[in-house]
Amino acid sequence: MAEIDHLVIAARDLDSGARWLEDRLGVPLLPGGAHAAMGTHNRLLRLDGDEGLYLELIAIDPAAPAPGRPRWFGLDDPALQARLAPRPHLVHWVARSDDLAREALPAHGDTLAMRRGAYSWRVTLTADGQPPGAGLVPTLIQWDVPHNPAERLPESGCTLMKLEGFHPDPAAIAADLEKLGLARQLALFPTGPGEAPQLVAYLRTPLGLVELD
After folding, report:
1. What's the rounded mean pLDDT across residues 151-155?
2. Contacts by residues 19-22 (CB-CB < 8 Å, ≥ 24 positions apart)
3. 209 within domain boundaries
4. 57 and 42 Cβ atoms separated by less than 8 Å
5. Degrees (nearest 5) of the Cα angle 98, 99, 104?
6. Which residue in 24, 45, 48, 130 is deepest, having the highest Cβ count within 10 Å?
7. Over the stretch 49-97, which tens digit does the pLDDT of each residue have?
8. DSSP state of 98
9. pLDDT tens across 86-106, in order?
10. Which run of H or E residues covers position 8?
């Protein structure tokens, strides 16, 4: 069965995105690294209370060459980049698997081998780079090293309290989550007329309860 690994917050620019998120949470983010195969870079924050759970702030790396395929998490989508212009947004979540070949759904697309520094892993990625289920069905990751980044990060004082998803067809999302054993991890609700799908996380932080969407 899969289990939640990390939340993905996309930013237009990593430095300004980190300043915004640090002001919001009241804690500093820590350096992550670059993903050469995707042309992205990130910063990280451990989420206390759940072993191996963390938050990833990610952005296109302007110093990196463009990859030979669409970047993950829909970062090449002009509509997403326009949405990120005012501030970062929670765009996706990633679940940890011990057997991608068995647990991945058709919607997950291909499996890619990745490496960043001391970390190596396999991850699912759709052909167009868009997250499955409009971001509500998690991408799957299988770590090929004993520890994921969260286990080497210091405690942050931030805890994930609840994860919610809004979708025009919540039953379809719920069916996919049930197959992954993750139905209890995401509370699902229907969107209103004309509303886009949305992922929302509620974090307990040193500044109080914070909503990220």
Report:
1. 91
2. 20/87, 20/88, 21/57, 21/88
3. no
4. yes
5. 120
6. 45
7. 878 899 999 999 999 999 999 999 999 999 999 999 999 999 999 999 9
8. S
9. 999 999 999 999 999 999 999
10. strand 3-10
Q: Left, alpha or beta for 154 (phi > 0: left; psi -120 to 50: alpha)?
A: beta
For 103, the domain range is: 3-155
Backbone angles phi, psi at 119, to 5 degrees: -100, 140
Write the DSSP string, 31-84: EEEEETTTTEEEEEEE-BTSTT-EEEEEEE-TTSPPPSSPPGGGTT-HHHHHHH
Q: Kindly state whether residue 207 falls inside one of the protein's structural domains.
A: no
CATH number at residue 26: 3.10.180.10
Give the integer Cα–Cα distance in Å for 75 and 191: 23
CB neighbour list of residue 1: distance below 8 Å, 6 or more residues apart: 103, 180, 181, 182
Nearest to 9 by CA among 74, 92, 125: 92
- Threshold 0.90, pTM exceeds: yes
From the list 139, 96, 147, the residue with the least C-alpha distance to 117 is 147
